[in-house]
Design goal:
mainly alpha
Length: 431
């Protein structure tokens, strides 16, 4: 507990020093998730993963930063909430319902609630309230740099055949066998989580002005996606590559050069052997497709039991074991439906979809909407949100950028038309 107290004190100092730059705090929290997997969070806060307060160090930073903002300058945050009353109500109901269900069921889901839901929502609120055009670019670039660093690390891991960092911590996962494991993940908590990050970051490259930077990052992200051996991630990455070539905003010559370069890159990746693991999984999925089918059939037979309320966060793992399934339910939305109830799960993921549909196509920063769509799809194609990792943080940072981008465009349009400018980004967004 002494270590935790020291970490909270450090977060308090940092949050106070940067109280006028909350977007920087968002970036630091995201980078903490990048550098420190959830299984190794105790190295900074001294609290084990099974403790009800064993939140990731980044989660503690977000909570402390939000409290400091509410004490020092609460009005902008309150205005943002008041401009989105229905969204706030839906998300608030989900958080309250998930918390109550988990407490009453005694499933030990407090850490999951904090790491995947509460802290990411607070981050999104900070982004929508305080991220101007420069702040949005900063966060976009932070995601790209972090994804590039993870890509390089995963390729080094492939070359060395070693996880390199946090090997003892990763070994606490039942699925990780350092002697036989050949799917690499950088310092994220799973190969599928790294694949999700790379696909979301690939979409963000569409907003880069430099064609060379975009091309280089796409090749790097593609190579790293191959070593994660994620089939869905591979298909999504391929779709982003095709979009990068054929999108209409680039000249014909740029498209031809990009297409030629990508073809050469694909040939090199194939000859390098990096694609071997993914191709093998495409030919033989080791039963994962059948496992997903069994999980879906199980849920269809049990949905009425969890229509109104669930068994508590993380309970879906035990429910799956009791039903004789060899894996988890393999879908975040289905797992949350079992954990907190079908209605609350539908409200939560429906709110994410509404944000994308309402604000996504009317922002100024290209690639953010596509990144949000990719995250919404990929997080529900696996158990990404059902254990502690960076998915919730990444998703809500991107959704925050979607809303902030719309707010920025609305304010700039109002200024150009001579209408009175809003006093802040938050007040410029009408519900």
């Amino acid at each position: 507990m002494v270590t935790l107290a020291l970490w909270v004190a450090a977060c308090l100092v940092l949050a106070w020093v940067l109280k006028r730059r909350p977007v920087w705090l968002v970036a630091i929290a995201f980078l903490l998730w990048m550098a420190l997997p959830a299984v190794a969070g105790y190295r900074l806060n001294g609290v084990g993963v099974r403790s009800p307060i064993g939140f990731h160090p980044a989660t503690w930073l977000v909570i402390v930063a939000f409290v400091v903002q509410m004490l020092w300058n609460p009005l902008p945050l309150l205005r943002t909430v008041s401009r989105h009353p229905y969204l706030g109500l839906v998300v608030g109901l989900f958080v309250f319902g998930a918390g109550i269900t988990s407490v009453l069921s005694d499933t030990g889901g407090a850490r999951l609630l904090a790491d995947q839901i509460v802290a990411p929502l607070l981050l999104a609120l900070l982004v929508v309230t305080h991220a101007d055009r420069a702040g949005q670019l900063l966060l976009r670039n932070v995601v790209l740099v972090a994804a590039a660093a993870q890509s390089v690390l995963s390729l080094v891991q492939t070359a060395l055949g070693s996880i390199i960092f946090f090997a003892d911590d990763f070994a606490t996962n039942t699925w990780f066998n350092p002697a036989r494991f050949d799917r690499w993940m950088g310092t994220t908590d799973s190969p599928l989580i790294l694949s999700l990050l790379l696909c979301a970051a690939a979409a963000l490259t569409l907003g880069l002005r430099s064609n060379a930077a975009r091309f280089s990052l796409l090749v790097l992200f593609s190579a790293s996606t191959l070593v994660t051996q994620s089939r869905l991630g591979g298909f999504v990455m391929l779709a982003v590559l095709v979009l990068a070539v054929f999108r209409t905003r680039t000249s014909v010559w740029t498209r031809l050069l990009t297409a030629g370069g990508l073809v050469l890159a694909v040939i090199w990746l194939d000859s390098s052997g990096l694609a071997g693991g993914l191709l093998s999984r495409l030919q033989n999925d080791t039963g994962s497709s059948q496992a997903r089918e069994r999980a879906a059939r199980f849920f269809l037979g049990e949905w009425s039991d969890v229509f109104l309320s669930g068994h508590g966060l993380t309970a879906s793992y035990q429910v799956a074991r009791d039903a004789g399934l060899q894996t988890s339910i393999e879908s975040s939305v289905l797992m949350y439906a079992i954990d907190v109830g079908l209605i609350l799960a539908a409200l939560y993921f429906g709110a994410q979809a509404v944000i994308l549909l309402r604000y996504g196509l009317r922002g100024w920063l290209e690639g953010v909407f596509l990144s949000g769509v990719i995250l919404l799809v990929l997080q529900n194609g696996s158990s990404a949100l059902a254990f502690a990792n960076l998915t919730g943080t990444l998703t809500w940072v991107v959704l925050g950028l979607v809303m902030a981008g719309y707010s920025t465009r609305r304010r700039e349009q109002a200024q150009r038309s001579g209408a009175p400018a809003a006093t802040s980004l938050a007040t410029s967004v009408s519900s």
